[in-house]
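Narrative summary of target 7.
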Amino acid sequence: MAAQTPVYLYNQRQYVVLLEPGARATIRYEKVYAKELTIHRGVDNLLEFAFINQEQKPVNIAGKEITCRILNYDGTEILLQKTLVPKLPITGITTLQLTIADIENIPSQYCYYSLEIPVDAFDYPVFVDANGGARGKINIVNSVLPAFVPAREITIPSHLPPVPNANIPNITYYSSVINTKEFPVLSVQTKFEEFTGNITLQGSTTGDFARPYPIIGPISYSNSGTINNVQIQTSDGHFTCANTDLLRTGSTVTITGTNTGSGSIVGYSSGVSYYICQSNGANNFLLSSLANGNPTIATTPGTTTGLTFTVNGYTGVEGYNVVGYHPYVRMQIINLGTNPVLIGNTNVLSGDVVEILAR
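Modeled conformation, tokenized:
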């Protein structure tokens, strides 16, 4: 017979005292009522409050807008404020309904809560602990989901870019070392801008990487290529082309050749490059001489016979999950580079890995 473990599904209900005129405090507020409440991060939470008076009788709270506040442990900050939702208001029962989104940005911690109810022209506290205090204890915990671990930026050393015309065809460099004691389950995210080259995630049993070994890779990236059948559609830099997977917002396009088509680009000279500031990723794109896309280039609609449009390198974000235990991890980057390109009046060197995050 398989072992069985009983589990329980119930609502947390807390009895709280609302002083009513004319009621006599014949029975002390019992300590059993003053239990510590718990909020679980990662799921929706429902807390019930049952309002009673000094005589331990239900209080009619129909029509009352009752406010619940959750305070940090030293009482210096309101972490959350929300209006209770009536459930059985005539018998004094109302609920605090918390969604995942309500508490996703509140870290696990011990807190206090307080309740405030309007009575005539005044707002009165509700007594929630055994000593007649207006603050009760509440614990926010990570019991359902693990604690959130923010991503940490992994540093990339300064390095010269590869410049083939200067006999520097490629350059190899390494990220800073990731100590996996800080990341029991390791994921790495890398951002590329116009990158052509290879990356490898390496592991080592020692922090000096005297004997590194490959974990993932090498993986090659190159989204350079020529786009075909380019047509100018408007006077503000809108182009169309044959379907391709090379178009990525933020990449640059280098244009070469002598234009004999019916369209034109104002200020064009062979070898100039422009930013793709907008694209559908398949067959149309908008060009600008500035990375922010404003303004776009001036054009005359028509064909572009004699011109070659080349997209430079891979632009995008890639993620890698490291499987197994590796005490130390780093990223090896081999940048194969491209020739410098002219953006407006400025020479811009080849693309690169611009950001690495780990968590």
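The chain has three domains: 12-141, 152-224+315-358, 225-312.
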